[in-house]
User: Fold this.
Amino acid sequence: MAHRYDAVIVGGGHNGLVAAAYLAKHGLRTLVCERRPVVGGAAVSEHPFGSDYTVTSLSYVISWLPPAMVRDLDLIKHGYHVYPQGPYFAPRQDGRYLAMPSDPAERFSQIAKFSGADAEAYGRWDDWLARLGKVVSPLLAEISPQVGSHRPKELAKQAALLRHLRGLDVRGVFDLTRLMTASTADLVEDWFSSDAVRGVLSVSGVIGGWAGPRSAGTAYVMLHHHIGDLGDGQVGAWGFPRGGMGGVTQAMAAAARSFGAEIRTEAGVARIDVANGRVTGVTLTDGTQVEAGTVITTVHPQISFLRLVDRDQLPADFVADIESWKTRSGTVKVNLAIDRLPTFASHPEFAPDVHGGTIVLSESLDDVETAFQEAASGRPATLPFADVCIPSVFDPTLAPEGQHIVSMFTQWVPQSWHGQPHPAELEAYADRVVARMEAVAPGFTDSVLHRQVIGPYEMEHEYGLIGGNIFHGELTPGQMFHCRPAAGFADLRTPIAGLYQAGSATHGGGGVTGIPGRNVVKQVLADRRRARLRGPKLIRRSA
Assistant:
């Protein structure tokens, strides 16, 4: 016997939960189907070391979640709380460190230890990125138009898109074009001379991707990570959610349920059902049939459209776009429980801005590039770089008193490792990451109580991140904005009537934003209104 809902959502990650909450808030009977025993997707808190420890398995910091969404869904009422993250702290093996505090005078002093010219340049660099971020940020928050469409409605949307750029002069357009196409190294080496500054800044251009800082297009990724808002007006602000990233998605799940949505875990979807060009529902892996006139898939597009939907239901060019979607990575997440905070040789005293910030293990841009080139040649990096966070500095619920949780997001291993587990090699790789901390914080290795190593294979097979890519697709110019993830379908619709997409591979995704989940509901409601006005005819797209 089939079960009937107004809308079914495939995948209980943050975008699926956001979509469910908004749909239910608008009165639609909504079901979320999640394959794993817990919702959250890659933004999940788990207990690999026992119930006393709460570990954010993959995604580890929050930014970008729009304050209006927090208010719309009453997330604070459901437990959402963010501790602002401290600044970059980059300890070096020569006994020095580079800190990047938000106070301009303090930051100037820190950078000047390495280069007076770099200290002078950094303020201009920060202002330059912020100006470009103000142009790009609204574009990421909106539904992308179908660039190239000649339909009057789409032409109007394309004109509105151009209006975003009217605040830019000739120099501004030049700078934005360069940022979208250049490598991280092209920009960073033009602006700065010291290895210390170049090393720290290069990481933000390649984090989570399959490209080194000398690869074209990585400069944009720096801007993507520079944009964010925790509700206090700071661009590029980041923070640690209480309870780990699972605290965010559990709050979203509670909000969705409060509006009437139903969430089922261990309810994998085996097939998205389609008849006569229109979605009719889903079939679960246990054979249960769920009927719905609206289905939203938030899982990776190569799962959605190459496994869950029969290819003969889709246009050949759409299938080709999804098949060629680039979703490589080579990232490794190392999670630790430690019995004491690290003592840095360069900064031995405790400081929230040090232990509660992002500890960057990156001595130079060339070291980062070398790590990528090794992985691209089929070898795990000899000297992996790492973004290291200790969220338990602010959130004591994550570990027993006096102990801490350490999140180490590292790169690279060969991207082909998503096909096989490679456990011994991953453990050796994790040893090298820990050794990097030991080199700047003597005694760190002895402080480790427990260790979890998650490589590309586990990311793909356990968490559904094809290729191990945390963004469901590489953040390159050819895979952003109207190209995300297929020609003509960045507006969150699909070639099948009633079937929508809202995963991280869609426009507005690439991070824990919730923007695709919010925006897809706007499309669903608009199409439902149009269907009521037009009667039972299918809504089909013309070029």
User: Anything to note?
Assistant: The radius of gyration is 23 Å. Residues 54 and 78 are 19 Å apart (CA to CA). The chain has two domains: 3-46+57-82+242-325+480-534, 86-237+327-466.
